[in-house]
Amino acid sequence: MIEKVLLAVAGRGLCEEMFNMLTEIPILQRASVTVLHVVTPQISADAMSAKLEEGGKILAEAVKSLNIDPSRITPRLKQGDPKDIVLQVAEEEKADLIIMGSRGLKRIESILENSVSQYVFQLSSRPMLLVKDDIYVKRINRIMIPLDKSAGAQRSLNLALSFLRDIKGGQLYLVHVNPDKQTASGEPITTPEQDPILASAAAEAKKQGVAYRCLNSTGQAGREICRLAEENNIDLLILGSPDRRPSIAKTLPDLDRLLGASLSDYVRVYANCPVLLARTLD
Fold this sequence. Notes:
282 residues; Rossmann fold; single chain; 10-stranded mixed sheet; alpha/beta
């Protein structure tokens, strides 16, 4: 259940558009939102004062653009390093979802250019919805879920079903890349619907009255997921993103993700639609 949203705004307006699209989903219409804008420290007091004034205007415009009851909006203007402040506020507010903009930087570029979204993605255990600067935010009707046997995939499925249950005309796209070629009983799989992983998810979707389509593919998982998202004009991609680091290292970045070796990092960079990373402990 998503009841508390942290919306990190930077003046571009895409995250606000994304939030407004989400609030058209019945299950999210009662959610409250903390709208956060962070002003980085400046060299002089005058420069800092000017930045705070500019930040206040950005925050006010963001709040004004949201299509929800103003009583459910908490604006926050903070000073500091945006990476640390977003993490801090997400914990303070116990956010169920963080919405952030992303430049879609590739691999090591995100480290060298001090990417805020990549840093938060590394260190937060909370679900994140990343909205790239170069995408077109659309009303949410088509949601894609890449599936496997992981807890993250199941969490993504549950989240997608909760979104789509009450959306008239909504459709769930269930994707399995590199599926087994035969069932457990040894029978050949000739259609996506015969894939046990897709069949199980499809049964759950049918039970909840959600229209669905099954797709399977072969090849490099990240590339195939992004290709299928584009081919099927997907509005939102939900991807399980497990945190495999031991508890002693929870405050340290995951080097696989920093270097672009993970599936979630590939999809974050290359998908042509907003990506919701449903974090789970694995």
